[in-house]
Design goal:
37% of the residues lie in helices and 22% in strands.
Length: 397
């Protein structure tokens, strides 16, 4: 088995994700290309300095603007929001792979008393009136229901009937999100927006085991390098340590992934066979590793496994958005700062869109990082681009 250094592991991951060297992703097509490579990017509705999915793309895609993602989702329909790693955004062509997920949702939906009648009412209303949100759908009252998108047992709880029926039909695949206003979702019939060949496509995975293997392979591709260890990068995939080991062995045997050892770490790491050439370039020192500074999203694929980040980068990051203010070490919404192949600190930058100014409330550098002229130059350049991303004309550091 091949052995690489921690530095090479870091460089490989960053090169794979497009976070080092010359920009590999550019404009709207670049955003689509990156999502396809990653498999999925996480969606989170909180918008402090951009939503998580937007922040993920701005760090990799040259010239990215928020409207590009909205167009890809709700105009071009090349991307779709649905479950995967929690709520996620992924490429439309992956729709057939989630057939069993939707089948499971429909099966669970039949266990909720009165839901079928409400589904019929909702479908008829949408057919006649078009996109609708839960506050506009004329279905009142509450029902006992629990979203199969976050199913964690066979229990039910009372919830608003209109919201419940829309979410159930959405998880079943009968509805898609037409658009969003803030965090409010508007739903419409999937058949109006998804091509027939996608809607009627056979599931490429013949068994649930194949679907699980496919998802594990996709997550390895999203991060670039993952270890044989309990990892939050596998969140949403129902596997234990024994099953994970079995899947990694199966994927290795079929040639989909390649095992590698990282110096100083006992767990075996794996990367996709298609990235063998990139790994070779990193090892031989021929990869494009020109340093760039980027601000990284809290739920970015790079940060999915914080234990891995700590092991490879010696960087400990905690998203403190849900931490009480008095217990925070840093800020409400701090972003890791990546420079070259190192995390050099974290930053909290909040846009004042009314004034058009990006206010940097805090900048915390890692021990040993000095604010040199070179760093200041890169920081100013990155903040200028981040201000434009947040519809601001300037920034205050």
């Amino acid at each position: 088995m091949q052995t690489i250094t921690k530095e090479q592991a870091r460089q490989f991951i960053l090169a794979k994700q497009g976070l080092i060297g010359k920009h590999r992703f550019e404009g709207k097509n670049g955003a689509l290309e990156y999502v396809r490579q990653a498999g999925c990017i996480q969606y989170d509705p909180v918008d402090v300095c951009g939503k998580n999915a937007e922040l993920t793309l701005q760090s990799r895609v040259k010239g990215f603007r928020k409207k590009m993602l909205q167009d890809l989702l709700y105009k071009d329909r090349m991307l779709i929001d649905y479950a995967d790693k929690e709520l996620s955004i992924w490429a439309l062509e992956d729709w057939p792979y989630f057939s069993s997920y939707r089948d499971r949702s429909m099966k669970l939906g039949k266990t909720f008393r009165g839901l079928k009648k409400l589904e019929k009412q909702a479908i008829e209303y949408i057919e006649k009136n078009g996109p609708v949100s839960s506050d506009l759908l004329p279905i009142e009252g509450e029902i006992f229901w629990h979203s199969s998108m976050h199913w964690s047992g066979n229990w039910q709880k009372k919830s608003q009937a209109a919201r419940s029926v829309l979410e159930q039909l959405y998880t079943d695949g009968a509805l898609v999100i037409h658009h969003k206003k803030g965090s409010r979702k508007y739903y419409d019939l999937a058949s109006r927006y998804l091509p027939e060949d996608i809607l009627n496509a056979d599931n490429p995975c013949r068994t649930e085991e194949q679907f699980t293997n496919w998802r594990v392979l996709r997550r390895i591709g999203a991060v670039g390098l993952l270890w044989d260890k309990n990892s939050t990068a596998f969140l949403g995939i129902d596997i234990n340590a024994e099953r994970r080991k079995q899947i990694l062995e199966e994927l290795t045997k079929e040639g989909s992934i390649i095992p590698v050892q990282v110096e100083g770490i006992k767990q075996t790491f794996y990367y996709r066979y298609e990235d063998k050439g990139l790994m070779g370039k990193v090892i031989t020192g021929t990869a494009d590793l020109k340093p760039r500074m980027q601000f990284i999203a809290p739920l970015d694929p790079l940060m999915w496994d914080k234990a891995l980040v700590l092991a490879l980068w010696d960087f400990q990051y905690s998203w403190e958005i849900y931490t009480p203010a008095v217990k925070r070490r840093y800020g409400y919404y701090t972003l890791p700062v990546l420079m070259g192949d190192r995390f050099i600190g974290r930053i909290e930058a909040i846009p004042d869109r009314k004034e058009g100014i990006l206010n940097v409330r805090g900048l915390w550098l890692e021990p040993g990082i000095r604010r040199s002229k070179k760093l200041e130059k890169e920081l100013n350049k990155t903040l200028k681009a981040f201000a434009v991303f947040n519809d601001c004309n300037s920034f205050v550091l």
